[in-house]
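Protein in question filed below.

…
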Amino acid sequence: MIIGNIAATDVPIHEVLAKRASAHAFGERPVTTGELRAVLEAARWAASSFNAQPWRFLVARREDTKNFENILSVLLPINRQWASSAPVLIVTVARVNYPHNEKPNRHAWHDVGLATGNLMTQAAALGLVTGPMGGFDPTAAREKLHIPEGWEPVAVIALGYAADANANSDARYAKPRERKPLAEMVFGGDWGETLQFAPENEKSYKETGKCQTHSTIQ
């Protein structure tokens, strides 16, 4: 999707979050060194279990032909087709064990996701767009990118500026953004129990975009 396809949220959220959308077409404008450092710095400051910071990022600009092509080659063909236009490709990697005791870190992929969320949100704040991909060959990524044992490739992110809206003719990416309603994913004390919000607080927040009182749950 092209940036500017703003989410139709049920209550106001931060503008950057509402504007963030996955991109599948990129323009020629390069990502500056300062912008690249900023999105990676945002990722660096993500929360993690035991502050283990289990994320690593393999980054290749398009002009770094060898490394860029290595990352591109591990993508599934459907992703390779559009990701090739991105100025930057980033592979996210998770450390599977805690560094302080070498015990399995079952939160590692979750924490890499938090760091990735920071990266993508910072990118949106800078006017950049991102295209995260799960469609890649992790075995090929390990071999071609020399990822050591104890680390697992998680995803690949394309980063850049959005192409002109007319450049992406795929109807899938022209549709309005949609998400399942909160009622399907947020429960009360028991699984499947509807979470009830205090009506007066919900109303005041919808009208002002600000919390007037501490929200309570009935």
Helices lie at 15-19, 33-44, 65-73, 77-83, 108-125, 138-145, 182-185, 199-208. The beta strands are 55-61, 88-95, 129-133, 151-160. The radius of gyration is 20 Å.
